[in-house]
Amino acid sequence: MISLSAVQKSYSSDVAIGPVDLKIPTGGITAMVGPNGAGKSTLLTMIGRLLGLDAGAIEIAGYDVASTASKDLAKIVSILRQENHFVTRLTVRQLVGFGRFPHSKGRLTRDDEEIISRSIDFLNLNELENRYLDQLSGGQRQRAYVAMVLAQETDHVLLDEPLNNLDMKHSAQMMQLLHKAARELGRTIVIVLHDINFAGHYADHICAVKDGKVIEFGTPAEIMTDEVLSRVFDTPVTVIDGPRGPLAVYY
Amino acid sequence: MTTTRAPAKGRLFEPSLLIGIVVVALLLVLSLFVGVYDIFGNDDGGEMFAITRIPRTIALVLAGAAMAMCGLVMQLLTQNRFVEPTTTGTTEWAGLGLLTVMILFPGASIMAKMGGAVTAAFIGTMIFFLFLRRVSLKASLTVPIVGIMLGAVVGAFSTFLALQTDMLQSLGIWFAGSFTSVLRGQYELLWIVAIVGALVFLIADRFTVAGLGEEIATNVGLNYNQIMLIGTGLIAIATGVVTVVVGNLPFLGLIVPNVVSMFRGDDLRSNLPWVALLGIAIVTICDLIGRTIIMPFEVPVSLILGVVGAVVFVALLLKQRRNA
């Protein structure tokens, strides 16, 4: 479980996050949604200890994020931010191998190699494993980075807008893979999403963030309503019954 | 099925590496026997061989490998392909440190000069890195431009200092990096860079992870600031020592890592032997050209390196534009 208590972060007098109290249950996918600049990514970055807090505390599986050594946290939680502009010339397999760094410190064992292979297969990258990252398309590269954080074998995986720059087909594939990772590998996945309909379909819990605060937290059935979505996104939203569940229409 | 796949861990020794070693060894043998002084025809040939040729060749190996490695580590730490000690001002800072020691303590030992150069190189590189983090320049070309500008300012200050203190000639000699003056009894401190090389090799994986960016590095539990500090320290030591003993070796750290990366990617640990070999080969070839082109005189190796380096730099730029 990931729990935030009275978490605060302020940038200037009018831009501030919190105080946020939130409990993200273990297992499944929790999607963070909300308008631009609401603070979704900032919250995720703070949970993943890439950004410090001004006040409050965050615990992951009982470990306090601020006081636990970074190298120990790396075995409990992994975080992937939006793609780097600089592309190192590593092969997919070498990159995924660095996901084992918290465990092996660079000296990869046979077990490590096997986990790397599994992670690569899981994201259907086996054909590409010896290709350099700069020879891949954006979607393939994104998958390689996800394979890296999966190879880290942490119970908690935080992903910041992993669907960015992905087309329809690859977005759907990515969500299916994450869904599979949550089910088959038992990971707790927290993901920032822009498309509310992806959240409604694939997530087990939806966390709505607005103006730096968590204003709603619940199952997709609870969040996917006209009233809640219109309030969260500040725009009229109608939820209709689609062929595969509720569908938010906002245009 | 998974066991038959090639492991992620790059192998260090490959048959092709052996060929590389043989080629470099041949170049070094050539370096031992090329020179104006006829070491076979004179009675003191053996003595001369030991005084100049052996030290010079060892210096080529150490300086070439060190500067190439420094360039690679710097490129990983800044995530920029166009960065190396001479495009970030590190060399100019080392020169300023050297000059300051020579002015303040005219009779300073070579050890003291080295200390001054290393300290100044460290401070200068830190300033550059902190500046980069503060402004987070994303455009890859702006970074070396800022570095070269910073270096020019520091270089101008050094020239001014030298003018005021009648040290301009010493500065000029330093600036024209050359292996001419490498003699027995004067080059031995260069062995320090061998230790730096060994350390880089030991923590190679950490540098590669740092090259993936601060966030990914932190994600896998690496102390990013610590590795930046260690990297800067190692670069400063190698650059400072090479600057004092040999002088300025421009572009070496730029050409070598880029060429190696093109063929072998960026996995630092498995690339290091290649980076070292290519660095040694290029410096040795340039030095051999410098020694023979206007025999019986010599052209400083920095001049040849500058010409070769500028051509490769432009070629890299063009290649990047085509890929973009």
TrEMBL record, chain A:
It is a peripheral membrane protein. Residues 2-236 form the ABC transporter domain. GO terms for biological process: iron ion transport. GO terms for molecular function: ATP binding; ATP hydrolysis activity. GO terms for cellular component: plasma membrane. SUPFAM superfamilies: P-loop containing nucleoside triphosphate hydrolases (SSF52540). Coiled coil: none annotated. InterPro entries: AAA+_ATPase, ABC_transporter-like_ATP-bd, P-loop_NTPase, Siderophore_ABC-ATPase. This is Iron ABC transporter ATP-binding protein. Gene3D superfamilies: P-loop containing nucleotide triphosphate hydrolases (3.40.50.300). PROSITE patterns: ABC_TRANSPORTER_2. The keyword 4Fe-4S does not apply. It is found in: Cell membrane. It comes from the Bacteria. Keywords: ATP-binding, Cell membrane, Ion transport, Iron, Iron transport, Membrane, Nucleotide-binding, Transport. Its main location: membrane. Pfam families: ABC_tran.
UniProtKB/TrEMBL annotation, chain B:
InterPro entries: ABC_BtuC-like, ABC_transptr_permease_BtuC. The lineage of its organism: Bacteria, Bacillati, Actinomycetota, Actinomycetes, Micrococcales. Signal peptide: none annotated. Belongs to the binding-protein-dependent transport system permease family. FecCD subfamily. It is found in: Cell membrane. Its main location: membrane. The chain crosses the membrane at residues 12-37, 57-78, 90-108, 114-132, 139-161, 190-207, 227-260, 272-294, 300-318. Keywords: Cell membrane, Membrane, Transmembrane, Transmembrane helix, Transport. SUPFAM superfamilies: ABC transporter involved in vitamin B12 uptake, BtuC. One of its GO terms (biological process) is siderophore-iron import into cell. It comes from Arthrobacter psychrolactophilus. GO terms for molecular function: transmembrane transporter activity. It is a multi-pass membrane protein. This is Iron ABC transporter permease.
